[in-house]
Amino acid sequence: MRYFAPTTVEEAVGLLAEAPGRKVFAGATDVIPQMRAGRPEPDGLVDLKHIDRLVGVRKTATGWVIGAATPTSQLTGNAELSAEFPGLCEGAGLIGSDQVQNRSSLGGNLCNASPAADSVPAMVVNAMRAVIASGGGTRTVAVQDVPTGPGRTTLAPGEFVIEFELDSAPANTGDAYLRLIPRTEMDIAVVGAAARITLDASGTVTAAALALGAVAPTVVRVADAESALVGKAIDDDVLAAVAAAASAACNPIDDKRGTITYRRHVAGVLAKRAVTIAAERARNRASGTPSTNGGSH
Ligand SMILES: Cc1cc2nc3c(=O)[nH]c(=O)nc-3n(C[C@H](O)[C@H](O)[C@H](O)COP(=O)(O)OP(=O)(O)OC[C@H]3O[C@@H](n4cnc5c(N)ncnc54)[C@H](O)[C@@H]3O)c2cc1C
Predict the structure, then answer these.
(1) How many angstroms is it from 148 CA to the middle of ligand 1?
(2) The two domains 2-167 and 173-287 share their CATH topology (first three levels equal)
C-alpha cells in the first residue's frame, strides 16, 4: 500500500482523483485499528496532516475555523475556544486517551460515521458547517448532513473535509456534552447528549438545541425538547418534558453496552443534565463567571 503526504489541498485532490481506491486519513486512530481488524486496505493512504490549512484552530471576525485534521488536544488546549464552547471541547476531550487525542481529529470523528462519535452531537447543536473539497472546488454543508448511517457519509468519492466553520456564540449562550460509558474511560458511549441554550436577561430560553448520540444510526436532533424549552424559564416541569422528548426520539440498538429500554432512559437523564449545565453556563457567560467542566458521566 502506498502512503502520500500532500502539502496542499489541490495536491490531495489530485492524488484522490488519480486512483479511486485511495483513502484520506488524519490521525488514523480509526483507520489503523480497522485495517488491523481485517478491513480491506485501501490502494493508498493520503495523509491530510501535512496540509497547513487542515491543521489549526483559528479565530475569525465572526467565529472560528477548525482545520479538519487538527488533533483534538488542540481544541481542549485552546482556552478561548474552551471558554466559548465548553461542550464542543468536552466532546473532543472524551475521545480515547491523551495519546489518542494528540492524533484524533474532528474530521475523522465525523467521517468515520460512528453513531457514538463523541464530538458530533456538540458540533450539531453548535450548527457547525463542514467545508468539503473535491476536483470541482469546495462546498459547505451542515455537519449533521455528513453522516448517513454507521460508516456511511454523503461525501462523494474524492471529496474530503478541509475545515469546520463555527459562528461565535452570543454572550448569554452555553453548551454542554455528557456521555455514559460502562467504564470510567476508553469506551464507546452508550448514550451521548449535547445541549446548547441561549437565555434572555430574565432567564427565559430564547434558543435551544439538543442532540443525542449512540441512540440511532446518526445523531438525533430532539425538536420536541427544543420547543418545550423555548419561551420558558427552565424548571422541573420543563426538564421532565425535555427528558420525555429525548427518550421518545431514540431509536437505539440492543447490545452488550445496554438494552433499548436502558438507552432510552439514559437518554432522558443525560438530556436533562446537559440542558441544565448548558443553561448554567449561559448564565455564567452572561455574568462573566468561568464555566465548570461537565466531563464524562
Ligand atoms: C483507543 C481508542 C479509543 C477511542 N475512543 C473514542 C471515544 O471515546 N470516542 C470517540 O468518538 N471515538 C473514539 N475513538 C475513535 C477515534 O479516535 C475517533 O473517531 C477520532 O476522532 C478519529 O479521528 P482520526 O483523525 O484519527 O480519524 P482517521 O482514522 O484518520 O479517519 C477516520 C475515517 O474518517 C475519514 N477521514 C478522516 N479525515 C477526513 C477528512 N478530513 N475528510 C473526509 N474523511 C476523513 C478516513 O478516511 C476514515 O474513514 C477511539 C479510538 C481508539 C484507537
Answers:
(1) 16
(2) no
Pocket test for ligand 1, best of 51, 75, 95 (most atoms within 8 A of CB): 95
Radius of gyration of the chain (CA): 19
- Please name the amino acid found at residue 111: C
State residue 255's pLDDT score. Answer: 86
Distance 167 CA to ligand 1 centre (A): 24
Is the pLDDT score of 59 beyond 90? yes
Burial of 252: CB neighbours in 10 Å, binned 0-12, 13-18, 19+: buried
- Closest ligand 1 atom to residue 68 Cα is 41
pLDDT confidence of residue 136? 92
> Among 28-42, 96-110, 151-165, 248-262, where is mean pLDDT lowest?
248-262
Host H or E run for residue 180: strand 173-180
CATH topology of domain 173-287: Enolase-like; domain 1 (3.30.390)
Residue 33 is which amino acid?
A: P
- Cα torsion 139, 145, 149, 152 to 10°: value is 0
CA of 46 relative to ligand 1 center, distance in Å: 15
pLDDT (0 to 100) of residue 292: 60
Evaluate: CB of 151 within 6 angstroms of ligand 1: no
Domain range annotation of the chain: 2-167, 173-287
Contact 50, 44 (CB under 8 A): no
Strands 191-199 and 205-213: antiparallel
- Tell which CATH architecture fits domain 2-167: 2-Layer Sandwich (3.30)
Q: Say if residue 80's pLDDT is above 70.
A: yes
Give the pLDDT confidence score for residue 188 in this predicted structure.
Answer: 84
What's the pLDDT band for 291 if we cut at 50, 70, 90? low
The pLDDT assigned to 14 comes to: 98
Length of the chain: 297
